[in-house]
Amino acid sequence: MEKIVPVVGTHPYPLNELLLMTAAACRLKPSIVFDWGTHIGASARIFYECSRAFKLGYTIHSVDLPPDADHVEHPGEEHGRLVKGLTGVHLHRGNGVEVALAQWQKLGRPKRPLFFVDGDHAYESVRDELSQIFSTVPDASALAHDTFFQSAESNYNVGPSRAIDEIVGKFPSRFHLVKSGLGLPGMTLLAAR
User: Which of 3, 103, 156, 169 has CA atoms 20 to 30 A from the CA of 162?
Assistant: First the structure.
């Protein structure tokens, strides 16, 4: 935490989520990390610092919307500023899951990839992204952000939690499930068995 918090702070990832991200990297020892929803590069920087601190040796491929995309959370010129120029961090533009899976294929289908899903928070898109990952990559693990379950009445980010429940139902014996569940925004690890 002494390496990560001074660089990325605790927003949008509170301490419990920073710890889950770090624990996932250390426990799973991925050969590569794919993330999307790059924004300024906070999640990619967290994985970068974990790799350095624990000598994990993976590369990171971070994907965000194209420069001309119209989206409320588009970072504009700030895209990837926390990771630009860092060795082993590669920035991409396009559809997150499509770019990540294309890179996974292009790089020779590396074993034990970790996917960090933090793009669109709609139920359908999170469900479809996770389904694409787990249908394509046999030994994939994923961390999904904004997964704290809330009542439907809250009308706030209920999609990721519902999507994870459906994916776990679709692949019932495939994962160890770890939920940070202490409050918003929430993070869930679907670790390959």
Answer: 103
